[in-house]
TrEMBL record:
Superkingdom of the source species: Eukaryota
Protein's name according to its UniProt entry: Uncharacterized protein
Region (Disordered): 1-27, 269-288
Organism of provenance: Stephanodiscus triporus
Length: 358
């Protein structure tokens, strides 16, 4: 008899003597055996704490290797899916207050629509435009799809919904917010920043961002779309920034504390706590606090981004220590209003100079 059976046998013999071996559970006991909402809430918070600990472990390793100037170990750590997840589920598009501004931004994008490429974009010297062949084609396709039999949709509402997803600045901010918590720990040795592209400075000659991929089709009387957008990011060592960029030390002073607070607030917000319990715990205030911290972090990141030293034309151009690609992919069913938005992360081997290989 193994240890488990040995330990169980006395309990079974005792139950048979008491006549309760196969008796049903009393109603009073069954009532108390149901998991209470408070217990479920505690489990959710425990899972959030474990996730927070995982982020903390990753951040500590990255900071340790950054202090030791061990770029190879940083890359190996980022390539470990157990430490750095490759896929993140993110919320809907936020931060688009002006649809006209979103349209102007989308007009400057290179793109492909159902495989047809639109790569001709006006240069800053030719003047800015509020329209492009790509957007004109999107509007025409929206009109044709809404005229199809069985489709009940407004072409302008459909076009406006697509413009929200084609706003690169909003998508980039969402990707940056999701990944900053994983790559910038308490020590703050590494800073995740976007690479400067044309949409950051529309009147400049900076390189254009990667083309946007848009797919549209009709199925079951509903218009569906898939929007894929790549954001090129870079991890910069804080020591390099402070040594070479005048005035950035003061700008980065609140960085460490903000990251630590944002990690805890955001992870508890994503822990799956039922809405009624969030309300009891002051969930609305907690959400506002998390969003406020995230906005402060992104403001610091974009303030650092727009410094001259990040310009490729500058004589002392500062390159990222590690290059990261963040692909935001969203699938939308405009008929039901449902959507799924996923952030896929990769560490491109070609940009990271062969350090990825062991």
């Amino acid at each position: 008899m193994n240890a488990a059976n040995y330990n169980a046998a006395p309990r079974e013999r005792h139950a048979r003597k008491a006549g309760t071996a196969n008796s049903p559970m009393p109603a009073a006991v069954a009532k108390h055996a149901v998991v209470s909402p408070a217990t479920s809430l505690d489990d959710d918070e425990a899972r959030a704490e474990r996730r927070l600990q995982k982020i903390h472990t990753l951040s500590q390793r990255l900071s340790q290797y950054a202090r030791g100037s061990d770029r190879r170990q940083v890359l190996r750590t980022l390539l470990d899916p157990d430490l750095y997840p490759r896929m993140h589920l993110i919320g809907g598009v936020s931060g688009v207050d002006d649809i006209a501004a979103a349209e102007r931004e989308a007009a400057g994008e290179r793109a492909s629509l159902n495989g047809v490429k639109f790569l001709q974009v006006r240069s800053p010297l030719q003047g800015r435009t509020d329209d492009s062949y790509f957007l004109q084609t999107v509007r025409e396709v929206c009109g044709h799809m809404c005229d199809m039999n069985g489709v009940d949709a407004d072409p302008m509402a459909l076009y406006g919904g697509l413009l929200l997803r084609l706003c690169r600045s909003a998508s980039e901010r969402d990707a940056l917010e999701a990944l900053t918590l994983w790559t910038s720990g308490q020590t703050g040795e590494l800073l995740l920043l976007p690479l400067v592209r044309r949409h950051h400075r529309p009147d400049s000659t900076f390189p254009l961002a990667e083309p946007v991929e848009l797919e549209m089709y009709v199925e079951g009387g509903n218009v569906h779309a898939k929007v894929s957008m790549r954001h090129e990011l870079g991890l910069f060592r804080r020591l390099d920034l402070e040594a070479g960029v005048e005035g950035i030390r003061e700008a980065l002073r609140p960085w460490n504390g903000l990251v630590e607070m944002a990690q805890r607030e955001r992870l508890l917000q994503r822990s799956g706590v039922p809405p009624q319990h969030k309300k009891k715990k002051g969930g609305g205030a907690a959400d506002d606090a998390a969003n406020s911290l995230t906005r402060q972090l992104t403001n610091i990141q974009y303030e650092a981004l727009l410094l001259t030293r990040f310009s490729s034309g500058h004589k002392n151009f500062l390159r990222p220590w590690v290059y990261i690609n963040a692909d935001v992919v969203e699938r939308i069913n405009f008929g039901t209003g449902s959507s799924v938005r996923i952030l896929n992360v990769s560490v491109p081997e070609d940009k990271n100079s062969g350090y990825v290989k062991k």
